[in-house]
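Below is how a single chain appears once it has passed through the pipeline. First comes the sequence as given, then the structure the pipeline wrote out for it. We keep one example in the README because the format questions we get most often are answered faster by looking than by reading.
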Amino acid sequence: MFADVSVMPVVVTQVKAKLGSLRIHHKGGDARVRAMADLVQTLSQSIDEETGHMRMQV
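Resulting structure:
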């Protein structure tokens, strides 16, 4: 159901914190993988690094 052998395997090459959010660099995957990486990067801007709780946006 979820296995699509036509999609290249995903290899995360680097994860780093920059300007208050995560930056994820990867090779392989497809549009869904890119969308998930973008979502994680966007959400990371709203998560407190120390507590893990969502920060209030002002």
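Residues 1-51 form one domain.

See the next section for the split statistics.
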